[in-house]
Amino acid sequence: MTATDEALIAHPAVARVNFTGSTRVGRVIAEIAGRHLTRTVLELGGKAPMLVLADADLQAAVEAATFGAFLNQGQVCMSTERLIVDRSVADEVAVRLTERAAGLVVGPPDDPSTQLGPMVGREARDRVLALVDNAREHGAEVLTGGEAEGLYVRPTVLRGVTPAMRIYSEESFGPVLSIIEADGTDHAVEIANDTEYGRLGRRDPAGQRPVVPRPGTVPIVNQGTAPMTAPDPGEPLRPAHVFDLLARLLPADAVVVEETPSSRPELHRRVPARTPLGFLSAAAGGLGFGLPAAVGVKLGAPDRPVVAVLGDGSSLYGIQGLWSAAHYRAGVLFVVLANGGYAIMDRLAEQAGHGKPPWPGFTEVSVSAIAAGFGCPAQRVASHDELTRILAEVVPSLADLQAPLLLDVEVAPDPTYGF
Ligand SMILES: Cc1ncc(C[n+]2csc(CCOP(=O)(O)OP(=O)(O)O)c2C)c(N)n1
């Protein structure tokens, strides 16, 4: 830490310090911030678990684990460090994972065939190798990897990792994945929580069942989110398909205004904000914010491409904003996810055991027809192909759009609601 860092933390104009980095430096920042009563948000070390339960799709699990553990050589704060596997499927997972990891191409970052590049420095490499050696000495099996050539550490899979080994609790921040076996779901969750770091929750790879972390812990995470290229034959279009198309096409300076309650986690996961003001969302969920907010943003920042991603219910709460958009020729692209109901509320009612909710669906309400009534060009979109074609036409020149356009996209709610 330097005098500049301390001056920044102490300055009255700094209301809060967000720090992402090592626990060691985070502790120093917290100490300095404490002296000046500056608030902090610290994203420090982690020992992220991924759980593979007995009924998981094992190939999907292995793919997600490979991606989660070895992306950027494991030098990612949310890298998968612990693979907690139900004992009944552990042999199969170990075999498939070993094969997958051993087949990854390690090489220079400028070679297009490279999948894993070098570690960031000698110190990082030595720390990783020391953790692997320590595990080996305490009886872990090195299924693949465990060695380095220069700064290139081979993707490493360990099995039989126990609390006696440093790697059980210390973050490797390298391409090392530890398999830990569990006897059933409760035991797997217990092991996942056996860490001094924050805990993560995610769905099991088959996407069937949320594994809920201990109360007070932090549910996140998005590793291994498979791109939803197009619906399978006979499958409906889902919000995730729409988001992946947007993510693929939107330019980096796009402003995404969000009000899509039931698919918000998917949107966060799939559509990254890459420029300041790249993402706007009403934190407290007072519906009716999104549609007029997008119009205001476009009028205030006419050079930015602006897309509003809205639930059909949400758009009705601020629908009169379309008149302003049309009248002032605000070139916003409104993407309305038309599922014909208050999906999130339906889901909550169902979870609370109230059966059919007292509020109606509104499949007969057409947001595109109402938009046309306000003078806003609009069209109903019923298929992935149609949406792909329209977005490919509109998005490249979105910043210069001279009038609003509303796409009323027929979707079915995501059955997992993104969790
Ligand atoms: C002003 C206001 N009224 C009601 C609500 C309650 N509410 C929260 S989400 C929701 C449904 C939103 O439906 P839609 O935008 O279609 O999204 P979906 O849940 O279908 O994704 C409602 C009515 C609210 N948050 N704010």
Reported by name, the CATH topology of the largest domain is Rossmann fold
**What class do helices, strands and sheet pairing give?**
alpha/beta
In CATH terms, the superfamily of the largest domain is Thiamin diphosphate (ThDP)-binding fold, Pyr/PP domains
Measured between the Cα atoms of the first and last residue, the distance is: 39 Å
Order of helices and strands: HEHEEHEHHEEEEHEHHEHEHEHHEHHEHE
Number of domains: 3
Gyration radius from CA atoms, angstroms? 24 Å
Bound molecules: thiamine diphosphate
Helix content percent band: 25-40%
Q: What characterizes the major β-sheet?
A: 6 strands, parallel
Tell me the name of the CATH class of the largest domain: Alpha Beta
- CATH architecture heading of the largest domain: 3-Layer(aba) Sandwich
* Poorly predicted runs of 5 or more residues: 200-210, 212-224
Number of strands: 15
Largest sheet, spatial ordering of strands: 11-10-12-13-15-14
Structure description:
The structure is a single chain. This protein has helices at 3-10, 23-36, 58-70, 87-102, 122-137, 166-169, 185-192, 239-249, 264-270, 290-300, 312-317, 321-327, 343-351, 367-373, 384-394; strands at 16-20, 39-43, 48-52, 80-86, 141-144, 148-149, 152-153, 156-159, 176-182, 255-259, 279-281, 306-311, 333-338, 378-381, 405-410. It is α/β, with parallel strands linked by helices and 419 residues long. It folds into three domains: 3-43, no CATH class; 48-213, Aldehyde Dehydrogenase, Chain A, domain 2 (3-Layer(aba) Sandwich), CATH 3.40.309; 239-410, 3-Layer(aba) Sandwich (Rossmann fold), CATH 3.40.50. The chain has a six-stranded parallel beta sheet with strand order 11-10-12-13-15-14, with helices on both faces. Strands 3-4-9-8-5 form a five-stranded mixed beta sheet, sandwiched between helices. The site of thiamine diphosphate has 19 residues, from helix 11 and helix 13.
